[in-house]
Amino acid sequence: MNLRELLSKSMKPLIMGHQNADPDAVCSMIAFSRLYKTINPKGTPTLMADDLSRLSKQVLDIFELKDEILENPEADYDLVIMLDTNSKLQLGTDFQDIPSDPNKTIIIDHHEPNPDVGAIAEHRLVKSERFSTCEIMVDIFQDLEIEIDSNTADLLLAGILFDTRRFIYTDLRTFQIGIELIKSGADYDKCVKSLRIRPNRSERIARLKAARNARIHLFDDWVIATSVINAFEASACRGLIEMGADAAIIGGRPTKNKVRLSSRSTREFYEKTNINLGTDIMAPLGKIIGGKGGGHANAAGANGTKNLSEALDKAVELIKAAVENATAES
Ligand SMILES: [Mn+2]
Known about the structure:
Elements: H1 3-9, E1 13-17, H2 23-39, E2 46-48, H3 54-62, E3 69-70, E4 79-83, E5 105-109, H4 117-120, E6 123-126, H5 133-143, H6 150-163, H7 172-183, H8 188-194, H9 201-212, E7 215-219, E8 222-228, H10 233-243, E9 247-252, E10 259-265, H11 267-273, H12 277-288, E11 292-295, E12 299-304, H13 308-329
Parallel strand pairs: 1-2, 1-4, 2-3, 4-5, 5-6, 8-9
Antiparallel strand pairs: 7-8, 9-10, 10-12, 11-12
Helix pairs in contact: 2-5, 2-6, 5-6, 6-7, 6-8, 9-10, 12-13
This protein binds manganese (II) ion.
C-alpha cells in the first residue's frame, strides 16, 4: 500500500475507530489525523467513533486535545481509514456500512484478520504480532520519515501502555518503540497517570461494603467469597478477587422484585478446577432465582426475581462439589 499517495489524493478522509473506542483506538486516530495533515495540509480529516470509553475521554482531557471526534454517523468522504479494528461489526450498528468501497478503504490494525477483511479494504496494514495499533502508527511515521512531535508521542505511548497493560504483553520491538517515543518527548509519568481511573464514590463504597459483608469459604486450597450488596456487583466481585479470593459471587436486590447475581474468578481457578462460572454456576442459579443466567468461564451473572439467599447457598454448594470432583479426578 502506498499510504503517502493515498493520503495526498484524499481531501476528505474519515478516520474511524471501533465502538466504545479505547485509548489505543482514539490515540492512533488522532496520530493518524496529524500524519495526514503533514502529508496533505489542505485536506480536512474527520474523526469518528461510536462512543468513546470513559478512559479515552480522560486521556483526551489530560493531554488537552482539541481534536473533535464525531460520535454520530455521517457518510460523505473520499477515503475511509479504519483503525484498531478490521471488522465492520466492531464499528457499531449505525457505523458499519460507512466503509462501502474497498478501493477507498484502508485498515490499520493489530487484531487477528477477519476472513472477509479483503472485501472491506484493498489497502491493509494488519500486523497481528503487534500489541497495539499505536505501535504500528510509530512504524508508519518512521517509514514515511515524518517526525513525531512530543504531544503525539504522549498519545502513542498512552495507547501502547493501555493495550499492553503497562508492558505486560510486550516484546523487544514494543520496548524499542517506547524508548523512541520517550526520545521524541513523551512524558512517561504523565502517560501512566492518564490511564489511572478511580471508581466513583458510590462504586468504591459498594466495593467496601461487599468486603465487609463477605463470607469466606475454603474448599481445598481455594478461597471463595460471597457477599450481598445492591449495586456495582461486578466491580465488587473484581474487588474481592483483587483482595485475594479465587472466586467471588455477589448477589443483590437492586429493587424489591429483582435479584441480580454477579461472579468472577481467576484464570488459575478455571484452569485447575474447570469450573465455568457461566455454564456450571450461573445457568443453574438463574433457574433458582426465577430468571436466566450465563456468561463466560471467568465472568458470569444471572438476573431473576426471587430466592437470593438460596441462590448464594447453592452457588457455594455447586463450587464445593465441583472442587471435590476436580480433586478426586486428579
Ligand atoms: Mn488495540
